[in-house]
Amino acid sequence: MADLVTTQEDRKLLYKYLSEMYGDKQAEKLMLKHKKNLFGYHGLAWAVGRRNLEYFSLYFLSNVYLAEGNAEIAPIHFEMWDEINSMVLNKSHDKQVYILPRGTGKSLFGSLATSIWVSLYNHKTYTVIASAIGDTAETFIRNIKMAVDGNKRIEEAFGQMYDTRKYINNSEKVEFANRTMIQSISAASTLRGKSYNNKRIELLLLDDYQKDDEVMTDEQREKKWKRFSDDVNYAMQKDNSTMIAVGTIQHKECFYSRLTKSPTWKTKQEKGILVDDVDELFNSGHWEEFKRLLTDKDNDNRLDYAKEYYLQNKEEMQYPLLWQSYWDCLDIALQYYENPISFKQEMQGDVDSIGEKRFKTIITESAEVIESHDFKKTMLCVDPAGSGTKGKRDYYAFVVGSVADNKVKYIRKGELYRFDFDEYLNKILFYLRTYTDITHVFIEKQTYSGGDVIRLKELLKEDSELMARNITIINDHQRMNKDAKINLIVPDVNMGRLIFNEDDSEALEQLSDFAGVEYSLHDDFPDVVAQFSLEIDKLNKQIQSLKFFDRSLLF
């Protein structure tokens, strides 16, 4: 193994943290006393790292945190290291939850550094990182291996701690020479009963522990919380346990929100944009003009125009961010304009925005202007009326939608009706006769279980005009959560990638009033528009597959 090469910067860093811990005079004495072993086996750097997670991260994991091209570490990251340091060494408290925006480096600065630090120094024998998705769990272990494998600073000060030939090493577990282990699991796995070296879990890191489909309904949220509560009581080592949760609040009663309300958990919550009111920020001054340019329906290059305006006024359009050196004000603003409600939840931790109207900008055009576009693909989507939720009687919802050459989706006709079965089928025939470029019809299967489609096919065979058309009928159940499905079109609507017929006032009113299934009187039109968007995307993919298929393979 090549000798470790240290620099003047390494010595300055060591002195800095010695000074913070013991004062300048004692730091000088220690540097002189240990000058022959500052960075070697169990040397001064090793001793400082044992007591200081921040120094350990910056020196021993400099390949991770101080690599060339990295953004400057934010104050929030140093605060996390300081608090975790106190939890582990001083037993200040044993449960901490960090509610931070997406993209804050929660895993990198929380889980990665902490798990390696406590293991190499044997502060904790058995560490478990639990995340909602199995792939993410495997990524944690892979990143830990990359941080320690061949790390000369660690090898020089600790000895050969990482050896794949001698110790457990797979996609889920990493064992070190001092008989400590880090294990990463999916949240779907039980915590109960896990142990290593006669120890239960001593450090539990709950890193993005909940998935989107675990927060949609009361039942899902309750199930998530109950399972964790039941598990954790039997999972932790009683005399030396620490739990740290990092994540984002997605609902007032989601897993992370419940942790913040628990009297046994200490909470640190930060906003991504360090202002009191992001709605005011992005709807006033230069940003108001930016939004006007961004949503100008008469300008096909509106995004480029808006970006150019930003570049011309960049200095005046800056605002304070949690991670100022890494995030970009333009990128963050575009995320807001695409979906303000989701943005406020994920970036600002604002659960009070749940129940606000989803569609802040709805761009419409006249039927004449819409029909002047060249359409690549057209379909009819139908959501038959059912019993509805909360006792509401649903509408029959219809959308005739197309994708144009400019890749914008147009709702050429969107209508809502309440009528009987025969009138419903006759309306489908009317749309097929009126819009002769319709090639596909999607009908949701929930209400009639396919009986309406059987009758529709009979009617098509009896119709001299329509029987000659090659119309494909798709009849399928709604398998996706309705709120999740409608949320998919929020960015496209708000950013003008989905444009509506200005004559369809009743349907547009329902779209405008939509604030989530639980908070809306009706959701038929948003639902059928979302279904159209999904189905037309599938057709486009099929077209692309056919377009690029090599016909020579057939012969």
From TrEMBL:
This is Terminase. It comes from Tissierella pigra. The lineage of its organism: Bacteria, Bacillati, Bacillota, Tissierellia, Tissierellales.
